[in-house]
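Posting this for the archive.
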Amino acid sequence: MFKTMTRNLLELSDWIAELGVTDVAMESTGVLWKPVYNILEDRFRVLLCNARHIKNVPGRKTDIKDCEWIAQLLQHGLLTASFVAHRPIRDLRDLTRQRAQIISERTREINRVHKILEDANIKLGAVASDIMGKSGRDMLRALIAGRQKPAEMAELARRSLRGKTPEVREALRGHVTDHHRYMLKVHMEHIEYLERLMDELTARIDELLISRLSSPSETSEEKIAEDKGEPSPLPFNRAVELASELPGIDVKSAQDVLAEIGTNMSQFPTAEKLAAWARICPGNNESAGKRKNGHTGQGNRWLRRALTQVAWAASRTKGTYLAAHYRRIAGRRGKKRAVIALSHTILVILYHMLKHHRHFNELGEDFFDRLNPERIKLYHVKRLESLGFKVHLEKQEEAA
């Protein structure tokens, strides 16, 4: 038995090497697998397995028996390794996840500012689309400083908000106490601190992309791709540029998604395997020919969060295939199911773009109409006839 201190783990690594071991299997348990994996990954082929997949039959459970069972499964080739990205991608993933948490915390702080303004009967959010814009921040600072004359604060409005000066003046007329000013000051300072931290993390991410992820890594992942006759993984910066071609994805969103799935798609045999790993696809629960539910299940919550945000953005784009795909499903299944379906479509598109180094091909918002125009025609004719109209169709002559 070896302890989990670094010195003990190094002794474990030497002992395993002396025995001529080449493959090591271990189960994933929270974050406790990481210290062992970090020590062993450079010397052995380490298989990190889902604990749910290697669970033994009920009985007298001990750590030694668990080890023997895992070793037996490994010996017979019955283990499937979980996807573990190489070290630079894992470092990037820590940064993008931390940035996502800070963005969420900033949103919560802004909501708290809204709550305090409502308590003070200040209706700034009713006339300004973003109270954290330049005009809104100036007014909040004036409010904190004690300049409570609505007419004076309304003059701080800029651009489009300038045209709403009477409404702004009325919205700033409230009942503000010293307690409200103090709480607003606390929250505004916290928001500004979080924004500085977001900028620092973004700069750190850019630095990491330049120093360690600007070229393909010489890892076993590249060798796997070469053995399969597939193109080598793209450099991360190039993959971000490629992913940014998709509607609804900006540079930050592309970084968040690729930090979770990596750029080497040879880890996933098919796009369906990637979607199943991400749990962005319907689940299977069928018995006696009856389908009970199709819940997607619990997967990578960070990837789901990023893909969902991208899907919402893509659903609002103009003249795109993704927006048409969203509307087509939302009308039948609802908006939330449509967003998950659109997330699945975006993930599948990204898979093929990264695997085959292809640019995004926009199919257009009329793609589904062009698939079966006769069906569209019959549908609209039937709808007009149901309203009492007599329909006569004549095909338009094509222009010479």
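The chain has a mean pLDDT of 87. The chain has three domains: 6-82, 88-206, 231-283+293-356.
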